[in-house]
Amino acid sequence: MNTQATSGARFFGDTAVLTGRSLRHILRSPDTIITTAVTPIALMLLFVYVFGGAIDTGTLAKGSYIDYMLPGILLITIASGIAYTAYRLFLDMQSGVFERFQSLPISRSGVLWAHVLTSMVSVAVSLAIVIGVALLMGFRTGASFAAWLGVAGLLMLFTLALTWLAVIAGLSAKTVDGASAFSYPLIFLPFVSSAFVPTESMPGPVRWFAENQPVTSIVDSTRALFAGEPVGSDIWVAMAWLVGILIVAYAISMSIYRRKIS
Q1: I need a labelling partner for 59 at 20 to 30 A (CA). Which of 5, 28, 52, 214 fits?
Q2: How far is the C-alpha of 185 from the C-alpha of 247, rounded, in Å?
């Protein structure tokens, strides 16, 4: 029992120290957070002020178009942000930092968790920036405090699941471009979902894909929480997708990592 307690304490302590190291790198280079927020903000401006008037969301949108499309923009923000996790992890692998860590009496898994926690913090800041801009553009919500907590929890679970996918890319990539390019399909997924238009307006095969991929259930759940409406079964579908992705991505990441350091 004492050995397990000591091991657990060392894991948390080492992870905290290594997370602090990664966060200091971001503070010295805040352009990664700004860059993560710029593209979603640009898309938000484009869709609201250029395309918004021509997009018919039917009876699903009870407010302005920005109220309808913000959940999708937030998911794009997350997908953009986790690309930097793969990028930073790849650079650490190539620079020999991991080899130096192996020579120290620190928790091996703490190295990966430090990158994951850093990703969650940086993405959370980017999300706050995007929501702030959305409020300036007219976004309004009837969400209660509990609903806001639900939105935050769902977005952070989405970030955690995608970050472990980014760990796989960072550990497996052969080039720095390959490490970050994996996020492109993730950024594209919200465009083939209910994020910007109702799925009912899509042709048959595209509609089937949109309604059965994970982004749609996450977007619909987030939109309902923002509107203060019942989320129905969408929240459970979203949770099942995210927990499943998280478990698989974590298992694959740790398997690759053990092979890398063995």
Answers
A1: 214
A2: 20
Determine the residue type at 168: I
Q: What torsion do the CA atoms of 207, 208, 214, 216 make, to the nearest 10 degrees?
A: 30
pTM, full prediction: 0.88
Give residue limits of the domains in the chain. 10-261
pLDDT of residue 112: 83
Place of tokens 């995007």: 130
Copy the structure tokens of residue 75. 């998911």
d(CA 237, CA 256): 29
Query: What percent of the chain shows pLDDT beyond 70?
Result: 85
Question: What sign has the CA pseudo-torsion 44, 47, 53, 57?
Answer: negative
* pLDDT tens digit sequence for 78-91: 999 888 888 888 88
C-alpha count within 13 angstroms, C-beta hemisphere, residue 142: 7
Helices (H) and strands (E) in the chain, counts: 11, 0
The one-letter amino acid code at 82 reads: I
Instruction: Assign 62 to helix, strand or coil.
Output: coil
Comparison of pLDDT for 209 and 262, the residue scoring more: 209
Burial per residue of 177-209, b for 16 or more beta-carbon CB atoms within 10 angstroms, e otherwise: eebbebbeebbebbebbbbbbbbeebeeeebee
